Amino acid sequence: MNRTTWDTVDFPVNYPFYHIHSESIFPFISDKNLSLLAPVVVYWIESILFELLDRTSFPWLEKYRIHESAEVQSRNKCSKMQVIVTVFLQQIIQTIVGAYWLDDDEIRVVDHVTEMRRLAPYVQQAAIVVLGKGNALNILRDHGTALISWVYWWGLPVLQCVWAILIVDTWQYALHRLMHNVPFLYRNFHSWHHRLYVPYAFGALYNHPLEGFALDILGTAMAHSLSFMTTRQAVLLFTFTTAKTVDDHCGWRLPWDPMQILFSNNADYHDIHHQAIGIKKNFSQPYFIHWDVILGTRMTRKDIQARRGVSESKSKIS
């Protein structure tokens, strides 16, 4: 099948469950404004829930707490009011940048059949490369419309999300590690975040404003742009990344927390980085730990125990 053949195919338009055939996800707010508002709302709702959890005194919950409550007061070097004000400042900046960065809310009428016809030759070429020409053409002849429809509605959006996540992870790992390895950057910028020796949820975005702009705001904006996401997809990317970042600083090892189940880069993993022994380790954030593994900067609780065991042995010998 060639391009001319695909141009005559009448692809069926079977909308997936996630497709909302309206001008905006919610009738009372545009998608652009939702992408700006949702991360802020989710940040504070999730933070309040974890703050309430922090204030509980149920004995059965204590085994899931990473640090004792008293440590937050005694070891952190900034007040909670300072944290709140700084986080609000970053969220104001991210809202302004997002309003400029994202497309205007003009409704773009999409002809899905035409878009699938444009996509078809690329799917065909990929199938030939992977399966060989004969097998690929046979499959496309029998299942071509279904395959291309699946790629259009599921394959490409998933690929965009994965690519965006990898961009965010790569950007944040590189910049985060740079902040630790260049004394000027750490002393003047990143040390703000490490005033929270014991992390808690609403301190997730407690950063120097310039670092917050470079690390979080610019990173997700680039990921959105380089993955060619729509404004509606940006709602998902920005909101989920925010929720993940809050969870990573929550201070709890919760066995039922889906983000801690799905991702090894979680609250316990990031907490190690906030401790003196792990401050030059575990730079990866917010999703995966592949850069730590590849570049040798991963540290686990077992590594800490082993290192402390060696130190204790040396102390006894001396």
From TrEMBL:
<feature type="domain" description="Fatty acid hydroxylase">
    <location>
        <begin position="162"/>
        <end position="297"/>
    </location>
</feature>
<dbReference type="Pfam" id="PF04116">
    <property type="entry name" value="FA_hydroxylase"/>
</dbReference>
<dbReference type="InterPro" id="IPR006694">
    <property type="entry name" value="Fatty_acid_hydroxylase"/>
</dbReference>
<feature type="transmembrane region" description="Helical">
    <location>
        <begin position="151"/>
        <end position="171"/>
    </location>
</feature>
<dbReference type="InterPro" id="IPR050307">
    <property type="entry name" value="Sterol_Desaturase_Related"/>
</dbReference>
<keyword id="KW-0812">Transmembrane</keyword>
<keyword id="KW-0472">Membrane</keyword>
<dbReference type="GO" id="GO:0016020">
    <property type="term" value="C:membrane"/>
</dbReference>
<protein>
    <submittedName>
        <fullName>Sphingosine hydroxylase</fullName>
    </submittedName>
</protein>
<dbReference type="GO" id="GO:0008610">
    <property type="term" value="P:lipid biosynthetic process"/>
</dbReference>
<dbReference type="GO" id="GO:0016491">
    <property type="term" value="F:oxidoreductase activity"/>
</dbReference>
<feature type="transmembrane region" description="Helical">
    <location>
        <begin position="83"/>
        <end position="102"/>
    </location>
</feature>
<dbReference type="GO" id="GO:0005506">
    <property type="term" value="F:iron ion binding"/>
</dbReference>
<keyword id="KW-1133">Transmembrane helix</keyword>
